Amino acid sequence: LPIIRTSVDHGTAFDIAGKGCASPESIEFATQAAAHFTKQVSSLSR
């Protein structure tokens, strides 16, 4: 793929939506992983 794609490790979690009990850890990790992979790919193309 010409893009870096990450996602959370769980589903949509509709069962806990709006209850204030969801943890942001999964999306934070996915975002950090995308940033890490972007740096790796960028260094390969130089």
Describe this entry's structure for a reader.
By secondary structure, the chain is mainly α. It is 43% helix and 0% strand. The chain has one helix at 25-44.
The biggest sheet amounts to: none
Multimer state? single chain
Q: Report the helical percentage.
A: 40-55%
Task: List the total number of helices.
Answer: 1
What proportion strand? Answer: under 5%
Tag the structure with descriptive keywords.
single chain, 46 residues, 43% helix
In short:
With 46 residues, this protein is mainly α. The protein has one helix at residues 25-44. The chain is elongated, with a radius of gyration of 14 Å.
SSE topology:
Elements: H1 25-44
